[in-house]
Amino acid sequence: MLADMRRRVGAVAVVTSLVVLAAACGPRDPGVAVVVGATGPADTAGGSLFPTDPVDTAVGATTTVEPTYLVQPGVVDFGEAGPQHAAYDGFLTSAFEDIEKFWTDAFPTAYGSAFTPLSGGIFAAYPSRTEPIPGCGKPQSTYQDVAEGTAFYCVEGDFIAYDDAKGLPDLVQQLGKEAVAVVLAHEFGHAIQARAKEWSQPGILKEQQADCFAGAWAAHAANDPASLIRFDDTDVRAGLVAMLQVADPVSGTGLGDPLAHGTGFDRVGAFQDGFQGGVARCSTFFTEDRVSKMIDIPFDRNDLNQGNLPLVDPNPDPATGPNDIVTQIPNSLGQFWTALAQQNGVPFTAPKFEPFSGSGPLPTCAGIAATAWPKNAVFCPTDNTIHWDRDEMARLAADPLTGDMSVGYLFSDAFSDAIETALRSSTSGERRALAEDCLTGAWVASIVPQTGQPKDKLVLSAGDLDEAIITAISRSDPTKDTNVNGSAFEKISAFRTGVLGGLNVCRNLPA
Description:
The chain is of the alpha/beta class. The protein has 2 domains: 18-293, no CATH class; 325-506. Helices cover 40% and strands 7% of the residues. The protein has 14 helices and 9 strands. Strand 8 and strand 9 (385-389) form a beta hairpin. The chain is elongated.
């Protein structure tokens, strides 16, 4: 997070990237790639990073019975392997048919003309396939042209092709078939841009809009009884995670790259815009100043830490002191909030940070249950101390899927609780938790790198925002009826609100 605090290069192999195969303004969109990495870190219940339990999003009742999806004939050209060679074929064809029906209804309202189906079709690609796939700028495509791990739309042939040997199976295995549907809804969004005669728009805006279109369709799948696909709360969460899984590589060159698609932070935001505002919200992406709302932090290849400060500096500089998470983040939080408190006449003393072991003995604090301590950073008002589980923070700091900003997010949420206490806030439960997410976003906004800032100022690194988003999802309410920490959808919205709008917008969060 300091000028030399950059996410380690190795994380790029775990968090996936977009394939850079053709310029976004060319006949084919660059497509998405899925790379399955190591198992993610545990959540608060000790399971995987992204629990499969239903969560409270903006959708309706949670589906409890898995529906049966039959293969819809004529939707996908499976080649000689035929349908049902993969267990998800029935779901996939139903999803594609539903996406097309969705746009048949939505396109005329948004763009003033009738929707026309894909003239070239949809193709499953695999190494042994001999039946032809249309060419994108040439007579015919092969599996090698489709490229391992990708799905793409070709405007010249007006078709979609996807890797049915590795790309989709890997994503299904990692996140579930519903996440695949969200990725393919994104690709279908590029076909919509061609029909709306907006294919020549800047590539980064096209990718943002396609993410937004995917969110609009996901809302339809969650809320419209007529949808052929039924999304529950868990499926919407999978859609959010899919946006993280297909974000630009951390070691990329930033938004200046003509093939850029956006960070996970940006892609999740576009998906949420579509989910909440529908196609009408997405249709404005080319006329609003969308790029100014995206945060561009290029990767620093000269960073000695390769992206992550250690939790504790093993060899602190005698002159400058430790360069680690437990020193730099509390210092930055204290400087930011103490200055604001003084400016506004609010009595405030920055809390101390004290580690404990999650295996015990645990801290005690009036009004805080013993179950709140393990795997967390918790503010205790009686001793003005943030007690943090050093075992959990060490794990988060070392894991390539999370890293230093995961610890920073948890430290900041606890510090935000101290601010809420100083302000004598009466909010509690989910509402207070979401307010803390927003205040964390406001602090994060203050450490976005700026030209001319002091070299010793703590600043964000490439990948840090995505680390915070991952942690927000992992700490969200695991069930629909919990309403303690907020759903993944709500926590991401609150955090992004603070990052993009700063401190003043946090007071306007809904009760």
